[in-house]
Amino acid sequence: MASPRPGPNLSKIATSLGVSVATVSNALSGKGRVSGQLVERIREHAAELGYVPSQAGRALRTGRSGVLGLVLPDIANPLFPKIAQAIEFAASAAGYGVLIADSRGDVATQTEAINRLVERGVDGMVIIPRRATRISSAACPVAVIDTPSTPGNTVAADHWQGGREIAEHLAGLGHRRILIIGNNQESNVQNDRAGGIRSGMRPDMHSETLWIEKLEQDAGSGCPLGLAEKVRQGFTAFAALSDLQALRALTELQQAGITVPADVSVTGFDDLIWSPVVTPPLTTVRMDMDRIAGIAVSALADTIRRNSIREGVLVTAEIERVAMQLIVRQSSGPANPAPKTSEMENM
Amino acid sequence: MASPRPGPNLSKIATSLGVSVATVSNALSGKGRVSGQLVERIREHAAELGYVPSQAGRALRTGRSGVLGLVLPDIANPLFPKIAQAIEFAASAAGYGVLIADSRGDVATQTEAINRLVERGVDGMVIIPRRATRISSAACPVAVIDTPSTPGNTVAADHWQGGREIAEHLAGLGHRRILIIGNNQESNVQNDRAGGIRSGMRPDMHSETLWIEKLEQDAGSGCPLGLAEKVRQGFTAFAALSDLQALRALTELQQAGITVPADVSVTGFDDLIWSPVVTPPLTTVRMDMDRIAGIAVSALADTIRRNSIREGVLVTAEIERVAMQLIVRQSSGPANPAPKTSEMENM
DNA sequence: GCGGTTTGATTAATCGTTTAATCAGGCATA
DNA sequence: TATGCCTGATTAAACGATTAATCAAACCGC
């Protein structure tokens, strides 16, 4: 009934070579004292037998599973593929596997997801927290990726600076009235980005902020944002806090007969997959997820290596904010002092 | 140096209750012969001690890790979050963890990613294959999710039928000249979808197919698709094989001053996250990923349970094609026999 | 009251790896 | 030559769970 593992194990190699298992183990790991030529012979033989070490056996003995957990509470965020990819890449470069857990956007099950990972024996985990949740340390080292302004954050993109880049870009193009379009006011990330935009504006500039989720509570999901009205009020730039919202703004404006960027400018955040290929391609700000993931994972790996006794720690890294990079494409252009109003009639 | 696991283990519970470890194990798993009241006592005590079984110990003994691998070779596909979420959900409902592996779109590393999973001791894996690759069975049971027409496929959405739904919808709206917009001609999925559209057209209808990747090889990535010209040629409907391409088409048309759906219709596939919130909301076709994932995972779990000896098998399921559902939104409307040509001048 | 079954528990082996402890020689030094 | 050290290997004890085999006692029919 019990299924024996298919491949050879240490003891098969050992008996086949007439040595002890301990020697084989030492030779392969390079730890004990084994003569050079014997190491050679053992390595060779192991390779030709196609030996692959049993993670279970190793884990049982060492207490380390070699697996990290990745908690993505808001998987609907289209940023997810990039994050998962970056984490997986960094982790496997560091010799770790990645176990995913998501809570389908439900706050209550975030804890449950974390527990499942702990039960599976992960050595540590990377958490991208759901907005406004605070991670109290779990039963293993935890790296948090949120925003630099979040307490307990390990490493994150410098969303604030990214916002400033956008503001300065728009200011340089002559825009003076900017509408910031965000989704959710509780999101640490979106708040940082909005704050950055405001802080980067010149004294003679004016901004308002539109929170979509709040709007949809009254007007229903998928409702129009009323951007044409905003254009009439003199806004010439729409700075969305995510490319998803930028896309929504862009198509609504286009449908209303307002041309981007001739009439108004639209910018986003995150450089999501569609951003370069829509018309016009989106001006946006990109975070270096590979770098962030690399820092998070190596900080985590360090902590795991250091902590002989397994305990819950919020991991800290030396670099905790990574600069975002402005990508200028064609959705932003010089401010048009008098956007064409002819089209506005038929709204 | 070696870090002892923090929590209690079977033997701690056993000595604390004055019974043997075997009895505790039996009581918790409900397998051997233990008296009812002792089972009760043991379960209670284990719970209050916060006992969590060691996956490593169990895995070593049983040869089962309780983990499935998920191979996503083309992670750039924005469909990924839904797939990953569905698989993770189905797997954790079946008591499995999910280890992810991606090959960053690189064909060569797909095999390497699979090997990494095998080395980590997964009990089976779900593979969404990169286009045009054929999965030869690995060292464990494998479920393939691609298209029903792919040899070796386990379960998938009925992309062909989805295509027919689109064609019939457009036919019913009076469209007679349809431009199919796909990305890559080698993709099994996209080919099925295109085939379905063609097969669902009425005899008096005409279609052409535009493959973006081929176009971009000459004209450069992100180049215009020249859809305005197609409108002039009499095409009134643009059926994209993914919402990503639909979005690209929609924005290009809108930017050219062509109104959707008044002038032409645009449809997509997959009901991606932005589809309901762009203007106009996209008519698309949705696959029931939860159902597909559920079927794939339970077929996999069955095979794993059945196969005492661990071997590589391509898993088969009873239901291998799952119907797609047409979602009619506002990007498709009645065919306009003479789309306005006034705007066409300024192209 | 005696062989035989059933019940409820224990014993002990096993999965594959790591690693501390031990040991047998060889070699150098006193 | 006896002592000590170094080298290169072996021994054996874990890690934590599962499970086949065993065992003691109770219970049954005859």
Automatic annotation (TrEMBL), chains A, B:
PROSITE patterns from the UniProt entry: HTH_LACI_2
Record-annotated HTH lacI-type domain positions: 8-62
The protein's name: LacI family transcriptional regulator
First and last residue of the signal peptide: none
Keyword NAD in record: no
Record has Flavoprotein as a keyword: no
Top-level taxonomy: Bacteria, Pseudomonadati, Pseudomonadota, Alphaproteobacteria, Hyphomicrobiales
Pfam family, one: LacI
Organism of origin: Rhizobium vallis
GO MF entry, a single one: DNA-binding transcription factor activity
Keywords: DNA-binding, Transcription, Transcription regulation
Domain of life from the UniProt record: Bacteria
